[in-house]
Design brief:
- By secondary structure, this protein is an alpha/beta fold.
- The protein folds into 2 domains: about 260 residues, Aspartate Aminotransferase, domain 2; about 120 residues, Aspartate Aminotransferase, domain 1 (Alpha-Beta Complex).
- Helices cover about 40% and strands about 15% of the residues.
- It is built from 13 helices and 13 strands.
- It has a 7-stranded mixed β-sheet, sandwiched between helices. Strands 1-12 form a two-stranded parallel sheet. It has a two-stranded antiparallel ribbon with strand order 6-7.
- Bound molecules: pyridoxal-5'-phosphate (PLP).
- Pyridoxal-5'-phosphate binds next to helix 3.
Length: about 400
């Protein structure tokens, strides 16, 4: 019989765009005893998590709660609940995760219209706004922080235009929530999906979402009641003309919001330990303060960029729309990017990322998110990367990278 060794993952310095390192207090929270899902103590934890999510999303929305599953489960729940088959959906795409929105919207039966941008850039909001006027979609879905290319899309003008034209705007803020401002109400975003394993620094496994009354109206119109749960069925007679029920049970936001509402109508069994992690992770985010947290991410980005540039490396993409929490480097001519990544991991215990599709083998991506976003990690990476590049015979300005980063820290 095979005897398996005890689990003992190596401590790593994780500088990828997720998953990232997790605060030990969050890991500890995950080891607490299980509570029953209707235990008042557990209900209080659910309510705390919802209240804290409203603060993190900067919204007065009633609905802010996690979908159980990775971030794409939140995306899928929002889209399957809001898109009726045949709805026209406009998707401006500037990287890999835009294509994910397209794929999910198509699976929901939408008539999808895409706008595509060369990778490394984002849209001028006017381009999207004129497409909204031209196409008159029911819904616009787009990414805020595109981790595949390291770019950030300004959303405020697009949000206001959607509101004026009575179009729902759905935003994938998986990579930005907790690291970069996401002003749900101020920007008029109707439904927003966040992620746990990026700037919130919680393990992967939940997707916090929020949506307003405009989105809720559409969801309730499509509400189908699960038999045997409610005493009265106010909604959702499937035989009614024109009724288009939400085509998923697990991702049905009308049922999920009943579960998170004071009704506590049973849907699934809440992920107890993940909810502990979410509550503790959000508590830590709010204790630091959102503005202080955004400033920390900016400070680490500035030091990292100064260091990489001084080393002689070139940064990928349009600098004017750089995503502060992901820094992309052009892999120098003739260098095997995977060999550099492997040596960073094997010799220094540092993980950085490669990219996808047209950028595979062309760039490295460095995430500075949440608990991973620290001076120690940035300096450790700059020193290690220099050593590894010298080993790979890449001409770098030896010594310059860490010194430039130290100078950047001194100047603030
Ligand atoms: C990471 C990421 C996702 C997918 O998240 P999963 O948790 O892997 O499902 C979606 N969108 C963006 C922008 C991301 O960075």
């Amino acid at each position: 019989m095979t005897v398996y060794s005890e689990l003992s993952p190596s401590p790593r310095t994780i500088l990828t765009p997720g998953p990232v390192e997790v605060d030990p207090r969050v890991l500890r929270a995950m080891s607490y005893p299980i509570l029953g899902q209707f235990d008042p103590e557990f209900t209080a934890i659910m309510n705390d998590a919802m209240a804290m999510l409203r603060s993190v999303f900067r919204t007065g929305n009633e609905w802010a709660y996690p979908v159980d599953g990775t971030s794409r489960s939140g995306i899928e729940a929002v889209l399957v609940s809001l898109i009726e088959p045949g709805d026209k959906v406009l998707i401006p795409i500037f990287g890999r995760f835009g294509y994910l929105l397209q794929e999910i919207a198509e699976r929901c039966g939408a008539e999808v219209v895409v706008l595509e941008k060369t990778w490394g850039q984002v849209f001028d909001p006017e381009e999207v706004i004129s497409a909204i006027r031209r196409e008159k979609p029911e819904l616009v879905a787009m990414v805020h922080g595109e981790t595949s290319t390291g770019r950030i899309q300004p959303l405020k003008d697009i949000g206001h235009a959607c509101r004026e034209n009575d179009v729902l705007l759905v935003v994938d803020a998986v990579a930005t929530i907790g690291g970069v401002p996401v002003d749900v109400d101020d920007w008029c975003l109707d439904a927003v999906i966040g992620g746990t394993q990026k700037c919130l620094s919680i393990p992967s496994g939940m997707s916090p979402i929020t949506y307003n009354e405009r989105a809720e109206r559409k969801i309730l119109k499509r509400k189908r009641v699960e038999k045997g749960i409610r005493q009265t069925a106010d909604y959702g007679d499937p035989s009614k003309e024109g009724f288009s029920p939400i085509r998923s049970n697990y991702f049905d936001l009308s049922q999920l919001q009943d579960y998170w509402s004071p009704l506590r109508l049973n849907h699934h069994t809440e992920m107890t330990s993940m909810l502990y992690a979410l509550r503790e992770g959000l508590r830590i985010v709010l204790a630091e303060g959102l503005d202080a947290r955004f400033a920390r991410h900016r400070r680490q980005e500035a030091a990292l960029v100064a260091g990489l540039s001084a080393m002689g490396l070139s940064l990928y993409g349009d600098a004017s729309c750089k995503l502060p929490v992901v820094t992309c480097i052009d892999i120098p001519e003739g260098v095997d990017g995977e060999s550099v990544r492997a040596m960073l991991l094997d010799s220094f215990g540092i993980e950085i990322a490669s990219s996808f599709g047209p950028l595979k083998g062309k760039i490295w991506r460095i995430g500075t998110m949440g608990y991973s976003c620290s001076r120690k990690n940035v300096l450790h990476l700059l020193g290690a990367l220099e050593a590894v590049l010298v080993r790979h015979r890449v001409p770098v300005n030896v010594g310059a990278g860490t010194q430039a980063a130290l100078d950047a820290y001194d100047s603030v």
